[in-house]
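REVIEWER CHECKLIST
Item 1: Sequence provided? yes
Item 2: Single chain? yes
Item 3: Sequence as submitted:
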Amino acid sequence: MKYVDEFRDPEKAKALIDAIHAKVSEIERRVLAEGRTFKPLQLMEFCGGHTHTLFKYGIESLLPDGIEMVHGPGCPVCVLPMGRVDDCINIASLPNVILTTFGDAMRVPGSKGSLLDAKTAGYDIRMVYSPLDALALAKQNPTREVVFFALGFETTMPSTALTVKQAQREGITNFSLFCNHITTAPTIEAVLNEPGLHLDGFLAPGHVSMVLGTEPFQFIARDYGKPIVITGFEPLDVLQSLLMTVTQIAEGRCEVENQYSRVVQDAGNYSGLAAMADVYQACNVTELRGLGEIGEAGVRVSDKYAQWDAERKFSLVHKKVMEPEACQCGEVIKGLIKPWQCKLYGKNCTPQHPIGALMVSSEGACAAYFNHGFRVPDDSSAVK
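Item 4: Structure as written out by the authors:
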């Protein structure tokens, strides 16, 4: 298929939905024949892009009752702790500093407000479309320090790394990186180790896999016995991946399969991986929203590029900031509750006035529910 509309073909979608229903019915019949109780299959889509596809095209409502989708961390904005936003505001408050970042980070609340609030208060905080835009600002403002607030899973890590390498080549020393990138595999492992959370399979993030390839996900099948399918973002991508996942379950297989093969190569992107290996080094993440401390899930700027590391340049000391007591983003991220089960959802917390990161981020599960018209039902027991 060559064009986007081919990935939205209603007849092909119906065929896939029918096949999913048939396969789940097969699993249910076998479980009941063995004298066991059949419970809905818990399938997690890790990426917020998949969550939005599920809701935008009404896919979740077309799935059999034997499948329950669990909405995972979604995006790095969703697990960004409030303390890192406070760090950014502290940097922006320094003399002669321009703080830059992506647009979806501007409204994430910290304990002192969001970056957008700080910009309104007079700090020089600018939205950019890429770290190269921030580097261009540094060239245009040689007497000022330009800091790029870098966040994202492996999807955005290569572009940030290549920007640092370019700054080194050109000798631009008034540019630095406040590195808050997060790696995917340890984050998934933290979810898998969450007490009380049972998952039967995963839809793996397609854009991350475009960089990483398939190897980093092998431990999920090998060590945890869970099927995982690398998934594209169109409706037929998601439906085909769901069929591939339940087929593995029906056949008793646990493998990494690549549905998104038109984009994702098994070996990943060599140039991107090489740049990441050169510029970053693994570090412990002291705090992720909703997931706590999960070991070496983070990266920092390597010693080779210390001159472009904002944490060293500005001597940052991270402080842990407690989330609002009523906010249940962590439970949603872990798949323990649905967004509408949060006490704040649709009441105190909306996309216009977000409290939690899952409502701020364009890829957050709460934003997906709310923006596609899902409101708190009168009878929550009636909701799948």
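Item 5: Key structural point noted by reviewer: The first strand starts at residue 41 and ends at 47.
Item 6: Recommendation: ____
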